[in-house]
Structure prediction request, 124 residues.
Amino acid sequence: MPAKKDLPSTLRKSPKKAQDTFSETLESAEDEYGKGERASRTAFASLKHSFEKQGDHWEPKAKKGPSDDRAATGGRTGGESAGGVDVKGHTKEELVARAKKAGVTGYSSMNKTELGQAIAKKNG
Prediction:
């Protein structure tokens, strides 16, 4: 399991459960696929099932499940990604409030996926 110092910075600031979820999945994925991008993507996909990126850290989701249309199809195709922002678990009004807080401009004309992408981009 990676040491805490080896975790991505957003995970070092996150709850222990998020760190453990990422680390355990990464270790298993590296055994299966070897070190690299595929193992990292697998670990983040697992993390996004139960956690949502909020600013510079990850918070537990109110309801576990895919965060966007792309995640729901289980792959790189089949919909747009919202960059780790849980658009399925929030109303448009909640996403607009988060976009305002993050300093996103043009949020009033965006759909939920676009809001999620803009929030993710502002979060870095």
User: Anything to note?
Assistant: Residues 1-65 form a domain with the Rna Polymerase Sigma Factor; Chain: A fold (CATH 1.10.1740.70). The chain has two domains: 1-65, 79-124. The longest strand covers residues 51-54. The radius of gyration is 15 Å.
